[in-house]
């Protein structure tokens, strides 16, 4: 690990960003043009002291998970992310067709979305990043590890994953998950993470095995969803999907018509979400 290179790289990338690049409102009395250390720490989900030590060349070797969070916070390109890993003494992640580094163009759009739920998904339905309102609606979906990172895997193996959808909508959602996994599997091949997921689900879920035999193939996102939340109940939401050019990642945006009941419920969830996040202490 080259602590001085890491410190210099972090300082320069932080200085290159502007608050508006990451969705931070600019106050009239702001003296710095780039981001503050505390702002980067908040974006990466780490304590300000930990990040400060990294910039001062006296921090511990960051874990791969922490480096991934820094790459997202600093809006690094894939090449910059790989450089960050190498100077930190870690192997840079491979770049298979199913890359989990958030596409910068999707991250920029997500940064502008504060008043409606939005999240970036990989082609395996892994939540790569989500805004606060999406976390309030779906829970923190970035916390999972292993196969459970995939929302498709959780859908067929964890009953709690289905609680956000009405029972009557479960069959349609199951078909959509299998169809999108079939597409990812066809693109990436049998030896890929998609192939591993298919084999695991084939062993664990009768429903998955039956649907897999139908050979449905599609990137599917319903343009209208009914979602359930324990605090505010059912919400009728519109759903829009923005895909990267290679279709490896999707920005999913949920919204409600102005002055509708669902819009009022989303406004209430924004309040609940801010209270939940304010109550959390910074983590390292």
Automatic annotation (TrEMBL):
The HTH cro/C1-type domain, residue ranges: 39-81
InterPro entries named in the record: Cro/C1-type_HTH (IPR001387), Lambda_DNA-bd_dom_sf (IPR010982), MLTR_LBD (IPR041413)
Cited Pfam families: HTH_31 (PF13560), MLTR_LBD (PF17765)
Family annotation (SMART domains): HTH_XRE (SM00530)
TM region(s), chain numbering: none
Record-given protein name: Helix-turn-helix transcriptional regulator
Lineage: Bacteria, Bacillati, Actinomycetota, Actinomycetes, Kitasatosporales
